[in-house]
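Problem 12. The chain below contains 208 residues. Write out its predicted structure in token notation.
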Amino acid sequence: MKIYHYSRKTGELLGESQARENPLEPGKHLIPAHATDVEPPIPEENEAAVFDEGSQEWTIVADYRGQIFWDSDRNTHEIAELGVEPEDGWMTEEPPLTDAELAEQFEIKKENMILQLKNNANAVITSRFPECHQINLLDGTKADIPDDWDSTIRVSDYAIVKEFKQNIIDANNNIEGNITALSYPGDSIEDLEVIDISQEVIKSEAGY
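Solution.
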């Protein structure tokens, strides 16, 4: 005799097997706990057969467990329980961004790249002359080295420092110009990402 096993917790169909004959009552079969000889209906996609021990009947319930849906505000919703259906208007794919949202993302990407570019340029300068903390010209909160600077801590020739700084700043400005020259919708975030803003590229652009 075929029997059908169901989950103790949810009642959902788990599988089937052949019941063993009762050795004490020939012709009768042993039905273990959480199993039944009542044949279940065949569920379709996004459905599950669930057994009710009280009524001894199977029912078909919605089964969207593990699926993710998006609402019109682009919020995600993952269904984790049997019997829960997606709400009206939920989509199975994330809705595309509007032109305004794409333009905003593009500008944010540009701003972040320019900020990182300046940080990298500053790092190039300070790593070249680590003990001269005033030489950072890209950060407006720091003062330039005065023209009468005369230090022997590491660099004795201010002209060398000044030239190096200016070359790095010029390189920074050139690369930044490449970034600001791009605009949405003619250009995309992928076009921005092609621009290399690494310290190595900054030094190469400056001729070092």
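Discussion. The longest strand covers residues 13-18. Students who got a different answer should revisit the alignment rule from Section 12.3.
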